[in-house]
Design brief:
Low-confidence stretches: none
Shape: globular
Strand content: 25-35%
Mean pLDDT: 97
Number of strands: 13
CATH topology: Rossmann fold
CATH superfamily: Nucleoside phosphorylase domain
Number of helices: 6
Radius of gyration: 17 Å
CATH architecture: 3-Layer(aba) Sandwich
Strand order of the largest sheet: 7-11-10-8-12
Structural class: alpha/beta
Length: 256
Amino acid sequence: MARAPRVGGRTYHLLLSPGDVPRYVLMPGDPGRVPTIAKFWDVGRELARNREYVTWVGKYKGVELAAVSTGIGSGSTAIAVEELLYAGADTFIRVGTTGALRRDVRLGDVIIGIAAVRWDGASRWYAFPEYPAVAHWTVVRALVEAAESLGVRHHVGIVASTDSFYVGQERPGFGGFLPQWVVGLVDSLRRLNVLSFEMESATIFTMASIYGARAGGVYAAIANRETDEFQPEVGVEDAIRVANEAVKILASYESN
C-alpha cells in the first residue's frame, strides 16, 4: 500500500508536521479570508502557505486555534482535512458563504449547517452514497450559542454541497447551457427544506464522522435564489465572529 507523500515529515500540500496545529480549525475557502478571521484573535501568525492553502495559528480569548483555507470545492477540501488530522486537528468548522434558497433567509443572515446533501465528488470515495454527511451535535450547539450570544440573526438546517458553482446549482453555463436533468433543482431542494447551496461541507462532515473527529459549518448568505439578490461579502464578518466564539464555547464544554 502506498504511503501518503511527505516532505521532510511535513504534509505535501499544507506543509504541516504533527503538532503544528491545535485541535480547533476554522476552514474558509478563500485564502484571503484567513487573515480576516485572525484579526479577531488575541494573537495570530501565518504558519504556512502553499497553493490554495494558507495556515494561521493563534489564540482567541485564550483558546488555541488555527485557520486554514481549503480553496473551492471538495477535492482540495478533502486534502486539507486529511493533512490537518495528521497535524493534530480534530474539530473543523467550515466558515464560508452560501446562496440561500428560501425567501426568509435575508442577505447577511448566517446559516448553521446540521447536515449536507452529498453532491460533492470527494466524499463518494470515502463512503457509499447513503452514508450521511452530518455535523457533530456539540459543534452545532456551540455555533448556535455563539450566534445567540452575539445577537447574529441565524437559521439552522440542511445545506447542499456541490462541486459545480454554475450548472450544479442550476445556473446556466456558457451560452446558456443547462442540462435537462438540472432544471427544477433549486425548487426541488426548497421543497425538501434545504436552506442553501455551498461547496465544501459534505466533504468535511463525512470525513470527520469517518475519522471520529467533529465538524460543523457556519455560512454567510450572500445570495438568495428566490429573490434573485446577490451582495458579495455581506454577513461574512458575522459568520467569522460566530465561528471564533464557537471555538471558545467548545473549549468551555471540555474544561468543565
